[in-house]
TrEMBL record:
Taxon lineage: Eukaryota, Metazoa, Chordata, Craniata, Vertebrata
Pfam families named in the record: C2-set_2, V-set
Species of origin: Huso huso (Beluga)
Name the UniProt record assigns to this protein: CD276 antigen-like protein isoform X2
Keywords assigned by UniProt, alphabetized: Cell membrane, Disulfide bond, Glycoprotein, Immunoglobulin domain, Membrane, Receptor, Signal, Transmembrane, Transmembrane helix
UniProt main location, coarse: membrane
């Protein structure tokens, strides 16, 4: 409830600020790794594209530009080649579409626009990636031993929580292992819990991605009853076969 309100207040402030040509930083935009994100920058409307001067940059690095009616890519940094799109003519906006996001795109972008007075907006971008559904592994000697919960391919680093019968645990898991995959820029996270979980308890692990406000969970119901029924069926069949063979 608080966040949208804060955002509205901030937007109202930015609108007010823009009337006085004051630079303003909006709340961060969250983009998904591998996907595209629109970095918003409203230009004064109506705009005349033939007179407009538009520069998207990060300090001295040019991300994209549109100068007096033409896309201007000659100074574009090669990191942004083929990854940007402007919509000046189509939509009368100075917003920038940035695609194939990676962790390296977490920056504060400047949108400089105007004709002839130049205004400046700042947009800060954070990236995120959803984790895979967590995998809960049980110890070989149930019910006592090390239970592990693993989720892979997410960003930023997640926090793993454990619940026993939907209550926080009374004992601590081992320190969480987080591995950054250098090639993808994503994390794999693992938490290990040494415990003796009784048959009628329910163990849950939750992987929390705070930036996406996503909790992924995996539940283990009555751990030691899951395998036993199968064993009861398999063993007599084997015994019968052995009897026949002998
Ligand atoms: C951009 O696309 C063109 C043609 O599609 C390609 O030749 C060029 O290598 C690409 N550049 C980058 C940096 O990916
Ligand atoms: C451009 O405007 C149209 C109609 O208002 C809208 O459907 C479309 O999503 C807009 N595109 C961008 C890139 O803003
Ligand atoms: C994240 O992944 C889970 C399943 O793995 C899916 O249910 C959920 O909708 C995804 N959330 C987002 C924000 O992509
Ligand atoms: C992360 O997990 C994925 C999927 O299990 C695996 O392919 C990858 O090698 C792991 N990365 C690291 C750095 O451990
Ligand atoms: C696990 O806990 C139960 C009681 O909750 C106890 O009876 C049992 O001996 C424990 N098992 C081990 C291997 O510690
Ligand atoms: C995710 O789980 C944690 C721990 O149980 C909780 O504190 C947090 O509020 C949950 N977040 C969401 C978005 O459900």
């Amino acid at each position: 409830m608080n966040k949208p309100r804060a955002r509205n207040l901030l937007s109202a402030f930015c609108l007010l600020a823009s009337l006085f040509t004051v630079a303003c930083v909006n709340s961060p935009i969250i983009g998904i790794i591998g996907e595209a994100v629109m970095l918003p920058c409203p230009c004064m409307s109506p705009i005349n594209p033939d007179l407009l001067y538009l520069y998207w940059q990060i300090q001295e690095t040019v991300v994209d530009a549109f100068i007096k009616g033409e896309a201007s890519r000659s100074h574009q940094d090669k990191m942004y080649h083929n990854r940007t799109k402007l919509f000046v003519r189509e939509n009368s906006t100075c917003s920038l579409l940035l695609s194939q996001l990676s962790v390296k795109d977490e920056k504060t972008y400047e949108c400089l626009h105007g004709s002839p007075d130049i205004k400046k907006n700042y947009v800060s971008l954070l990236v995120a990636a959803n984790y895979t559904s967590p995998v809960l592994q049980v110890p070989s000697e149930q019910p006592r031993g090390r239970y592990t919960c693993t989720a892979t391919g997410g960003f930023p680093e997640a926090t793993i929580h454990w619940l026993l019968d939907n209550q926080p645990l009374l004992w601590d898991p081992e320190p969480q292992q987080s591995v950054l995959d250098e090639s993808t820029g994503r994390y794999n996270v693992t938490s290990t819990l040494a415990a003796n979980i009784s048959q009628d308890s329910t163990l849950t692990c939750i992987v929390e991605n705070k930036r996406l406000h996503v909790n992924l969970s995996q539940t283990l119901n009555s751990p030691s009853t899951q395998d036993t029924p199968q064993n009861h069926i398999v063993i007599p069949v084997v015994v019968v076969l052995l009897l026949f063979i002998s």
